[in-house]
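Quick check before the chapter quiz. The format below is the same one you will see on the exam, so make sure you can read both the input and the output lines.
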Amino acid sequence: YRIGRGVDFHKFAPGNGITLGNIFIDCNLSIIAHSDGDIVLHAISDALLGAGGLRDIGYYFPDSDLKNKDLSSLKIIEESLNLLKQKNFQPRNIDFVVVCEQPKIQPHVENLKISLSNILNIDEDSIGVKATTAEGMGIIGEGNGIAVFAIASLSNIQ
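Here is the expected output.
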């Protein structure tokens, strides 16, 4: 097995909702990002790429390239999966934690697992989803940002 880690951080701005793991969460926030800002898919993509011994998403999708402006994070994870497939790897399991004061993530855990199961083509019970707060510390603790820490394992394609 191969294991990789992915981490991503973004600031919040006032808005009409955020997308995490391709699930829309209605709230009064938006994520400031060059792409569509799906921080869950970004962290998972980096974890998968790392497990495959590949570069990070910034290498494949640099924010200096205008064609990546507002890019769908589904495209990022699809390309990550294609790169893994070229090396005969497939996702085995993922685990991630979302760190933010708001919105609350717990009500969305099951929908996140279903969405990610479909995207990654792995069983829902191979996906761990957790959430925590920063206990009022720093920019995230003040409610001005969000972070995701992800790990992923790969297996060889049979």
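If your answer matched, good. The mean pLDDT is 95.
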